[in-house]
Hints:
Largest interface: A-B, 91 and 92 residues
CATH superfamily of chain C: Thiamin diphosphate (ThDP)-binding fold, Pyr/PP domains
Bound molecules: thiamine diphosphate, iron/sulfur cluster, magnesium ion
Largest sheet of chain A: 8 strands, mixed
CATH architecture of chain C: 3-Layer(aba) Sandwich
Distance between the termini of chain A: 28 Å
Strand order of the largest sheet of chain A: 7-6-5-2-4-3-16-9
CATH architecture of the largest domain in chain A: 3-Layer(aba) Sandwich
Helix content of chain C: 25-40%
Largest sheet of chain C: 9 strands, mixed
Radius of gyration of chain C: 21 Å
Number of helices of chain C: 10
Oligomer: heterotetramer
Mean pLDDT of chain C: 94
Shape of chain C: globular
Structural class of chain C: alpha/beta
Strand order of the largest sheet of chain C: 2-1-3-4-6-5-9-7-8
Radius of gyration of chain A: 27 Å
Strand content of chain C: 15-25%
Amino acid sequence: MTSSAPALAKGEAKSELNDSLDTGAKKVFCVPEHTVEIIANSGEGAQKCGQIFGSVSAKMGNGVWTVEIIPAEIEPPPRHVTSTSGNLIRFGTEQITNWGDRTKLAVAFNEQVLLSRHRLDSLDDECIILVEDMWENHDDENIRKEWATAMEEMSSANYRIVKVPIEEESLKIVDNPHHGKNMFALGMLAEVYQRDLDLIKKQIANIFRRKPAKVTELNIALVELGIQWARENLDFQFDVPAKVHEEARVVMNGNQATALGAIAAGMEFCAMYPITPATSVSHELCDIIESYGGMVHQAEDEIAAAGVAIGASYAGKVALTVTSGPGMALKTEFMALAVMTEMPLVLVDVQRGGPSTGLPTKVEQSDLLAALYGQHGDAPRVVMAPATIEDCFQSMITARRIAETFRTLVIVLTDANLATGVQQFPRPQLDERWQEAPLDLSAVPEGTLPYDWDHSTGLSRRIIPGQANGQYTVTGLAHDEFSKVSYEPESNELGCNMRSRKLAVFQSTLKPPTVVGDEEGDLLIVGWGSTRGAIEEAVGRARADKLKVSSCHLTFMSPLEPGLKEIFSRFKRVMTVEINYSDRLGDPYITAENRRLGQMCWLLRAHTLVDIDCWTRVPGQPLRPGDIHNAIVSHLENGAAS
Amino acid sequence: MTSSAPALAKGEAKSELNDSLDTGAKKVFCVPEHTVEIIANSGEGAQKCGQIFGSVSAKMGNGVWTVEIIPAEIEPPPRHVTSTSGNLIRFGTEQITNWGDRTKLAVAFNEQVLLSRHRLDSLDDECIILVEDMWENHDDENIRKEWATAMEEMSSANYRIVKVPIEEESLKIVDNPHHGKNMFALGMLAEVYQRDLDLIKKQIANIFRRKPAKVTELNIALVELGIQWARENLDFQFDVPAKVHEEARVVMNGNQATALGAIAAGMEFCAMYPITPATSVSHELCDIIESYGGMVHQAEDEIAAAGVAIGASYAGKVALTVTSGPGMALKTEFMALAVMTEMPLVLVDVQRGGPSTGLPTKVEQSDLLAALYGQHGDAPRVVMAPATIEDCFQSMITARRIAETFRTLVIVLTDANLATGVQQFPRPQLDERWQEAPLDLSAVPEGTLPYDWDHSTGLSRRIIPGQANGQYTVTGLAHDEFSKVSYEPESNELGCNMRSRKLAVFQSTLKPPTVVGDEEGDLLIVGWGSTRGAIEEAVGRARADKLKVSSCHLTFMSPLEPGLKEIFSRFKRVMTVEINYSDRLGDPYITAENRRLGQMCWLLRAHTLVDIDCWTRVPGQPLRPGDIHNAIVSHLENGAAS
Amino acid sequence: MSVSMPSFLNCISDDDFAHYEVDDYQKCVAKWCSGCGDFGALNATKRLLAKEQLQPENTVFVSGIGCSSRFPHYVNSYGFHGIHGRALPIATGVKLTRPELDVFVVMGDGDCCSIGTAHWIHAIRYNMDMTVLLLDNNIYGLTKKQTSPTTPIGFSTNTMPRGSYLPPLNPLTATLGVSNASFVAQTADWIPAHMYATLQAAYEHKGFSFVRILQRCPKFTPDVFTDAVKNPDNNELLVHENGIDAPGLEKLFKNRIIHDPKDLDGGRHYAEVENRVRLGLFYRNGELPCYEDTREVVSVTAAEKIQKINTEFDRYAV
Amino acid sequence: MSVSMPSFLNCISDDDFAHYEVDDYQKCVAKWCSGCGDFGALNATKRLLAKEQLQPENTVFVSGIGCSSRFPHYVNSYGFHGIHGRALPIATGVKLTRPELDVFVVMGDGDCCSIGTAHWIHAIRYNMDMTVLLLDNNIYGLTKKQTSPTTPIGFSTNTMPRGSYLPPLNPLTATLGVSNASFVAQTADWIPAHMYATLQAAYEHKGFSFVRILQRCPKFTPDVFTDAVKNPDNNELLVHENGIDAPGLEKLFKNRIIHDPKDLDGGRHYAEVENRVRLGLFYRNGELPCYEDTREVVSVTAAEKIQKINTEFDRYAV
Ligand SMILES: Cc1ncc(C[n+]2csc(CCOP(=O)(O)OP(=O)(O)O)c2C)c(N)n1
Ligand SMILES: Cc1ncc(C[n+]2csc(CCOP(=O)(O)OP(=O)(O)O)c2C)c(N)n1
Ligand code: SF4
Ligand code: SF4
Ligand SMILES: [Mg+2]
Ligand SMILES: [Mg+2]
């Protein structure tokens, strides 16, 4: 188990903490950040508790990153290692960009959900655990045994386990033992971390605003009970200083940001078919888009969703389709049609674990090559990946602009980590021009060609039904400037040429990515998408150890940003860090020649001919900065050795 | 227009020919090979004429390559440049591996179909043209005008145009002017090339064996009339010497070879949905497979076809699905399921022009990246490409073996060039063991795991329904050795690992590809698939010019054959030649950095980090050796310049 | 499909509008085989367009892939020649976002009833106001004679050379089985007057007007409709005062069934195949809401949108 | 689905076969929400398996993706938990090549009637001998409450928060509209005896036995069936001497319609939704050929095959 514990001052702070717990002296530890999680059976409200805690912390001015802990089943059996539901909140004085390493303090409603986190290696070796105590001496012998076995298994770690009569206390206020425990827990956390009680009360009042006032009161009473219990029984507190932020800020998850981004970008039409973890983008949109004069159409399947979106785009709307891996697979044929007919279309793929149905609720970055190359024939398109929650919002604005300017398909690759991760960012400035319709219905000059390609740029004017003199017939067959089916060699070469040229033109407008850290050194870590925060944190730690490491994060995968080869040449080694599969050297049969590499790694090798290595994992979880840090260190050590 | 004319001895032979035509002296030209085409409105039987000519030539011992000339519509308007239907036959003394350069002798039933070939640049500048003369002075003024305009347009070339009263002559024997002309034309060709009349008669008798004997007689009479006419009116003949072949040989097109290969490989089940140019594989199979105890199921769509094939494989059959680009797009999701569940499956993709509906009847090699990377998540599979008609047959045997040994998806990439190209090859030796069922239904030991992965090789035992003690549930979700759904990080890593490892193991059994030509030099041309013949012919010509060029043809694209980097390192430059799209340096906005490359080129760059160039075209036609030859020369010249 | 111009506008002089002759709706020469039934459908459609004086720029023809799906290339209007089986999703996208456009959909029997099945069934449910032509030649034409869902059992094709295995799918009963079906008719290319009248009725119906046109393919299924083509007595017309009115057919077509198109049970019953080819209107219900109406959007200015998004942000404000 | 053992074998002593209790068909603990109707369907199915003494190794359960599609993981037999909407193609591949296996297919309403529509409609046509369970909870369960084709109009979901827009698709009439439909029944998880009897009849039928099971989802559609669950009078049983025989229900369920399952018109009529939930057998036709029988293959030895291929080569010989 890792020993890196940046949240606590090294050495003495920890033993101090241990001392204070052992001796009973109340002590406040001032730390730059902390990671807390609250876990329970699903249905016990742990998620709500975590959300309020996270959002109150954000409002107080802390940097916050929240991760959902979701069980595989809708209603899994209680007290089971597969049932864990809850929230992990990492918060600190500065901006928090990722879920960090391991949890420092956990509240668990039973020992089984705790055990599941232990097995997943989610808890810091010195984690403080506030665990419900009713199971230890439960009437049911089986439960007692389960408790004992679990505690035995967890004794391998140095956890500080504090037993709390959560249910017993809560029952002082509520009748139903399944309700209210989460608010009691919230109270304990509020006391431990000195959260602003007024903010908590407001948040609770807001959540239950449609319920009788009594409900809010009860919940607040429970919180206060938790505070009181913690005050009387816990001998430690943490102080995570907050900052005053001048600019207005918002806090949301990536799917919410994507949905709001779509609306802000003037997207009026979304066709979709439900699929985890993309569906909640549509849920957000469904909730509000109609009041913007827009619409979400739930189609009979993903194929239809793509087709309806293309029809809407043809009709002159700004069209969007949102899906995840298996859904994108079904859209493959229609995506090629969008490319061939130069129909502007934005497709958001919220990546999950694959292949096939894979890991529906878990993060992976393995749809990159499918997004780039999934279509038969030559089908150039733009592929981009937001790296933060804020990016999710902004990328929708960019994607629309590219799609329309270049009459092209734009694929936006987010992932399950961004989808459900919650973070705050400066409230976006909106622009009315984003809301403009792509085209009006005025007549076009007689003889206007549907593909009046500028032979140098491949760009052409878009015409939509309703425009007099513009009548033409779109086709997915090879066609000429008139959109007439044509099998002539020249016309096929020209069409391929024009569709591809647009990417080169777009590429010429891009700037080289920035290097974080020194402009040259021993190792450059290249990443893309949601791993940015974790990578930069890891690189920061390595640099603090005086390692000559920098990082560089790519936004566009097709076309690639300029200058990569030049940037890479300034580093002795280049390595991508990705959440996708690669073979490991040293494994049986794996050679440098047959080794299958990370997807971005592969792409960049072809693009730059630089001997790029990769460090990739597919744990169905976001990467941890600590693990990336270790990878950096060992990569440099190997480098030194070779 | 190119001046390379290997079929005729250079210089004097040509002028001799011209002389003989001009002076009226009958002359026999001995040539190592010739390319002849017969073209007409569709429905006039030009295809049949060409097929008989090709097959008789093959039987006589000539090397033969036949290409279909197909119009875009089912029944296009007569006398129109879009209507051309017919056959091109390249035949020679040695083995013929591709369609060659341009046609040396053409028989045309009207000037419009001729014009279409002229415009396509299909005719050698000195082509001899036997064209129906009735249109020149036709009653219909429009037709006379069309004739005149067409002749005017074609006068830019040095064609030797011989006007033939084809219809007038044929009407001496048949009543319907639309029938019989093809047999008259066959007669002319038989005389010009001294084809064996007995073989022709046998072939005709075989074709019309289900019709009244009278039909055969009439057709033979027409052939004889054609012979007589040519004898009396043409003052030239060509002699293309044939060889006696010891070994038995067969002649067929690639789709027929694929179908027979599937049967020979013991494939018992094919699920498909019609799509050009793949459908005729199924037509062949449908015709005969039932008498082998097998079955073709035409599904409601390509998705279902893939699913039914997977179901059949799960049930223990050797299953096949055959399609083309748009169909493969639809199978994307099921292909991932096959990979995830390790279900043996062979998928043949007969590539056509893309993207989208593209060029349905035309050749392209642009499905490579989609075949390699089309699936979301990490979905390792085997991808291979036959290069000849014979390969189409053999690759099915190989594909089955790989699919079953490695419990994997095998994609076989053929294309429209192989599909309809006709060539002879040694009659394959069959092996009874190929017919063995994958498994019997005997019970498995209790506790046998559905994925009892050998952790070193990733291989595992396949179990099928009916085997007692084997009951398990296949799933496309991440799963463990028991095939139980599992979201644990370790089990996902293990599954990914095992599925990928198999490719490394398979790769370790492969040999490096052979280099044709010297083992080192200035330029190595790398190809894959149906371009082999044209590439090797072009390289042969370049080598005859003393250029230091070799070629190397790849069969496996995933995993790639070993030793490529080493082979490439022995050449100053490496260039792929492919029928797919790449940007051209020198075009507006295209830079070395943003240039999009040929698909194999891209793959090999990532794999070898060698700065490989590419020469690619998407004319909807096979590549011509002459054009490749030019590309080689100019690539070397540029090389010298830089 | 509803008439796009409200009737009170009839009094406005025609001079205010460009006038279109039938031939004005022809874009380029249609390239089907001679004798192909698609020509008849194209002609009847152009007549309808002229009769209704539809503006080419406000009319959209959407199709999939197949011989019949070439249709949009031949009509002077906007067109979308899509991908195989997917005409209806594309048409849905058009109609849903631009309900003022007149949308026609043309599909083949393979296109609609095989690969396009899911979209077909669901489009019936959506009941969008569009006119849908199923050109049913009982075969895959473009790909050269493979069995389609409507191919007669026993009929030999390139994929089923020893005869097709299954009884044909009946597109009429299938459509009538779907909740929300609102207009289901059958006509035949060999009775142009009936075809025209049927298309006219389909166009006038507000909702998803599904018209199966029995279409001759002399190339690959030359004989499947011969009995009905050769002998009027092998046809049977569904007639009713609320049905399709094709005057002048009484004399030739003696076999008539009186069927009220309101009667769904009866429509389903008559849609079952019997020994004659049945043509006419099986069911019509003009009362069912159209999805594009249900989903009608409000119009919001850019400024209002910005304001709303800002309110939204307030919900997420830190 | 037909009984796999011919009846004359009934006289053979049971000792010759391993005997399976209901619980022997349980593989692992089912993980649905408490109160989920899928449990009932699983129980009824296991009872049927035990009653018919199906050999686990010769029985295959195929499903798509959804809560209901977890079914095969819980049955001790071979299973194929496929991809969303595609259970039927997989099942077709199994049955077509291994007709001796007993095949069951389990789908959800989204799985079957939305993304799986094309396969559903065509599987009806193929009429393969399999037992097909549509677990219809009127909602997308696994993905957490989105509208499915059978969701009641107006019902609020995450994708249609202001109420679902369309009247629900009726899987019964849709199935009955497809040519070759051979067995169409509806039952409900709240009447276990009826559900068991229906599955029994479905299994006994030789052909594609389509059973829609109205399935409670306490999580997301807790109230959609409440009326029928709470008050037997809101249920209506189709009964007939040739129908489904679930003895003991007479007392509780007073509303009964006598309907001969041979009567297709009647079946279609009764399948239309009215104010009560109608349960029973709408249509059965045991005379329709099964596709796997039509496509039955001959057995050919390897040597014969080699010889045949050689004859084939002769056709292509140079
Ligand atoms: C995805 C895909 N699958 C298959 C095809 C090949 N294909 C083109 S048209 C067609 C069927 C044509 O039959 P039908 O729809 O009845 O139209 P028809 O030509 O008879 O008018 C097929 C299978 C295709 N273009 N795309
Ligand atoms: C191709 C694809 N699209 C979407 C999904 C997401 N998905 C899984 S189950 C499901 C629907 C579940 O509803 P239903 O079929 O009614 O089954 P239930 O869960 O209600 O039993 C969806 C949309 C998926 N797994 N694959
Ligand atoms: S093949 Fe048949 S459907 Fe196609 S154009 Fe020819 S006649 Fe018409
Ligand atoms: S969500 Fe509904 S259908 Fe799914 S397991 Fe729970 S109760 Fe059953
Ligand atoms: Mg057709
Ligand atoms: Mg459901």
